[in-house]
Amino acid sequence: MKYSIRDAQASDMAQVHKLIKELAVFEKEADAVEVTVDDLIRDGFGSNKLFHCYLAEVDDEVVGMALLYPRYSTWKGPIIHLEDLIVTASMRGSGLGAALLTKVVEYGQQLGVKRISWEVLDWNDPAIAFYESKGANVLRDWNVVHLDEKGIQKFLNKI
After folding, report:
1. Cα separation of 118 and 111, whole Å?
2. pLDDT in single tens digits along all 159 residues of the chain
3. Which of 23, 29, 36, 76 could staple 114 via S-S, CB 3.0–4.6 A?
């Protein structure tokens, strides 16, 4: 199989949005996607670029993506967060996930980051095995904490 990995362009955001929705279905959160194509264009390609995105293509069709953004660790310094690494269902197991992850790691090394971090659902055994096979440490003793929009408002109303 011949594939290519490239930087995403604003014109690719409809395909990126489609992959995001596919991932949400896979993760049993089909109705959780609030971001729009316009949001992705503004946030990834506007004057205040919030993320970087790589795409995997086969026969000029977008079949995978990796979306990441900068963070800062008080313990380590500059890091990047891999928000999503998505390979469409028909292409899983083809090596595209490894190719996308390699691109992210190369990018992180070029930036001189001290760590690349991401989350994986505890029931996604194939992804966990994949990440561990690549040398990643899956920290099972940490809980991810989110404060969503409703939680933010509730928090602020209690002050």
Report:
1. 17
2. 799 999 999 999 999 999 999 999 999 999 999 999 999 999 999 999 999 999 999 999 999 999 999 999 999 999 999 999 999 999 998 999 999 999 999 999 999 999 999 999 999 999 999 999 999 999 999 988 999 999 999 999 987
3. 76
Q: Residue 61's closest CA among 112, 109, 19, 27?
A: 19
**∠ CA(26), CA(32), CA(36), 5° rounding?**
105
Query: Where do the structural domains in the chain lie, given as residue ranges?
Result: 4-118, 121-159
Catalytic residue among 54, 72, 107, 131: 131
Q: Are 144 and 119 in contact (CB under 8 A)?
A: yes
E-strand ranges in the chain read 4-7, 52-58, 61-73, 77-87, 115-117
Task: Please provide the CATH number assigned to the domain covering 4-118.
Answer: 3.40.630.30
* Size of the chain in residues: 159
pTM value > 0.85:
yes
Could you confirm whether 72 is annotated as catalytic?
no
